[in-house]
Amino acid sequence: MSAAGDGDVAATQPSIQHHLCVFGGGTPSLAPPSTIAAVLETVTKHAGLRGDAEVTLEVNPTPVGVAKLADFVLAGVNRFSIGLQSLRDEDLRVLGRDHDSQHALRTVEEARRLCPGHVSVDVIFGRPGQSLACWEGELQELLLVCDDHVSLYQLTLERGTHLFKQVHSGELSLPGEDIMACMYESARRILEERGFLQYEVSNFARRGAVSSHNMGYWRAGQYLGVGPGAHGRFVPRGEGGVCREARTLTLEPDVWMREVQRWGHGTRRRAELSHTELLEEVLVMGLRLTEGISHQHWKQFSPGLDLQQVMGVSAELQELQERGLLILDHRGLRCSWEGLAVLDSLLPPLLSELQAHAHAQGAVGRTTGSE
């Protein structure tokens, strides 16, 4: 690891011991395995990475990537997340990927050999020209070769990309919203039939292969972001009164490295979250999970404002419960099967209700961050 990265970790270490490490944000599998080993050594030294930590590496399924998987395991990686995206070569070309379906399948096979039960694949639906029948067939094909974790994502067009221009010029067309909704519902049903339990909006696992880092995000856990463009949420060490900070690091790699070498860190922005902002994150992220937000979990962040007080009195929220989209009971607050599919439409009234109650309670101070 470079001296810059070493300094960035040391400068931003929070006051907790880490139980997972994720190499993501692009194509980290392009890095030499020796670099991954050096990073893990530095994280262990400065941030207390546990010996049994989940160490995930995002992998681009190219011939170069698959050839290095065994060395990544020797470096300390014990879980792979493979950006498979599609099993259709034509669609991979449209998406601008630099691998084909055979490369993807070989990568999955080798990763499963090295880390059985600890391999995830990412798949994109809603691709240009994709039909519901084609999507269902592709998913069934994928389930013949995948491991125990699948992540499904609806295609998002990124401004400035060639695909964005093709779609907006009319050269390519995406499936309609109704078709995309059917694709998502069909995928949920197919995965359930094959033993995969949905534990989050986009994530499915069988045989207990739930991703620890995914659960950490959605349960509003603390995490340290290191490297160009990284984000973090944690209580800084030695800053007792601080609730929790949101940190954003410099995006440009060369600028980030110069800043770390000069200042000892590459942090571009530090923002202390108010109590209300923290509760908003707990709500938005927690409702992505099928387990939702338990009363006990909520009280860790808001001992003076319980879920029943916030969500149990609004007529609008009671209507959502009557429509079978939202459940508030002795377990806590969560979406129903139907509600999870339309979560984005449920969040605005929930956030409005939270903000109104927080304002009334004067909940604008600080609270202790929860791991």
UniProtKB/TrEMBL annotation:
Residues 1-197 form the Radical SAM core domain. It comes from Aldrovandia affinis. GO terms for biological process: porphyrin-containing compound biosynthetic process. This is Radical SAM core domain-containing protein. GO terms for molecular function: 4 iron, 4 sulfur cluster binding; catalytic activity. It comes from the Eukaryota. The lineage of its organism: Eukaryota, Metazoa, Chordata, Craniata, Vertebrata. One of its GO terms (cellular component) is mitochondrion.
